[in-house]
Amino acid sequence: MKRIVFAAVLISAMFTAMVTEAHPHAYNINKRQHQQKARIHQGVRTGEVTRHEAMRLHAQQRHIQHTKRVAMVDGHISPRERQLIQREQHHANRSIYRAKHNARYR
To answer: Which domain, by its residues, includes 63?
Structure first.
């Protein structure tokens, strides 16, 4: 019984350490990704974004997610990698705005 309790405490301590070491910039990147996806879905619901535009916007989001995953391979996002991801997110943000305001409705 003591071994099970000790193992559970050890595993929870290791998990806490891993969560604490998570990169602080990853949170901001994830938050912006979530907001952009929500804007795309809202545009689809209201009809401001056509099906084809939504497919293209989702592809951009997948590309940004892939870039972030590649940057996190070493467990750290360098300033250059963060700048690249932010540039891609800014480009996606403008694409979402243009898709929602181009007077095309489904």
So the answer is: 23-100
pLDDT in tens, 20-79: 445 667 788 899 999 999 999 999 999 999 999 999 999 999 999 999 999 999 988 999
* 105 domain residue, yes or no: no
- Overall number of domains in the chain: 1
Q: Is 47 left (phi over 0), alpha (psi -120 to 50) or beta?
A: left
In a domain, 4, yes or no: no
User: Which of 60, 50, 62 lies closest to 105 in space, CA to CA?
Assistant: 50
Cβ burial 43-82 (10 Å sphere, 16+ → b, else e) = bbeeebbbeebbeebeebbeebbebbeebbeeeebeeebb
> What is the reported pTM?
0.73
